[in-house]
Protein 1
Amino acid sequence: MIDTGSLEVRQTRLGYAVFSGRDQVSRDFSCEYTACGAATRLEVRSRSKTRPCICCGDQFLSTGPGHRMCNLCRPSEYRAAERHSRAVLGLQPDGYQ
Ligand SMILES: [Zn+2]
């Protein structure tokens, strides 16, 4: 498991590579920019994890602790949040009353 807080790009004998602490976690890249891109991908992948949706219980790929609903359930959550913010602003939601 990669510690997302400690990934860094360092120069190696062969170019540049991503390191987690003392361990090299990517292949060697000839260009530092490419190695940085690999570090970003590795960070996203290490945060991503299959979790059950809190709404329907289906397994889905979550990108982090704040991502707990599958894609099918999330849009309705956003619509609810939007209705709420409109109510706070004093706007009548569609079909209200
Ligand atoms: Zn769901």
Protein 2
Amino acid sequence: MPVIALQGVRGGIGTTSITAALAWSLQQLGESVLAIDLSPDNLLRLHFNTPVGLNRGWARAELEGVAWQQGAMRYCENLDFLPFGGLNLAEQRSIDQQQRQAPQRWRDFLAQVRASGHYRWILLDMPAGNTPVIEQQLALADTVFQLMSPDANCHARLYQQPMPAACRFLVNGYSAASLLQQDLHQLWLQTLEGLLPLVIHRDEALAEALAMKQPLGEYRPESLAADEVLTLANWCLLNLQGSAR
Ligand SMILES: Nc1ncnc2c1ncn2[C@@H]1O[C@H](COP(=O)(O)OP(=O)(O)OP(=O)(O)O)[C@@H](O)[C@H]1O
Ligand SMILES: [Mg+2]
């Protein structure tokens, strides 16, 4: 049961959208997937048609002292998701503190999920940044995908902010018409260890999929980006199946 954490080199790169899309594509390939939202923004659920006002999720369950499994929801036969839960600011601070004080909670939860044998893949939708809690959560993953836009901001960040050990870099939002993006991508191909051998293009289908509250491959399976995420899912099957601890 490989655990893949997806995180943006900065915010807004498309991490949550790609997490939902990858979960869908893995499920399309016959795999079983649990996608977990670790971001207090609580947006992953919106890719899975959840009513905006429904605030269930693992952090809400934790605050209410009930099992995290009760926050999980089924999207389709082989695809479940666990929202963060709708928390106000004071509740978010309280969960953050609890997480820092009990780093073992997630390890125990993942051990239970593994023992249940329900899922072949776990995807973690991470917020950008490197707070102590985020560092603890990244350490749960067998593989970390760091998402980048091909722009100078991300390029600068590659060299001035710490990156998780042995992470893979995934380019999202690539526009072939941009000379700068072509150049940056070429440079990364030549110099960036861990760059994945595929890109996800900027594609209106991804933007529309969220507006329609569906994962990309369900909303627009024939789109270029959906095809690329399917390639990513196949790459995971070929390269990560043996990576689980
Ligand atoms: N390849 C793409 N082409 C077009 N639009 C995209 C693409 N990837 C993401 N988007 C759009 O960009 C916006 C931000 O995406 P998303 O919420 O997935 O980013 P994020 O990295 O998770 O952000 P945050 O840092 O807030 O968690 C969304 O409206 C999404 O539809
Ligand atoms: Mg996000």
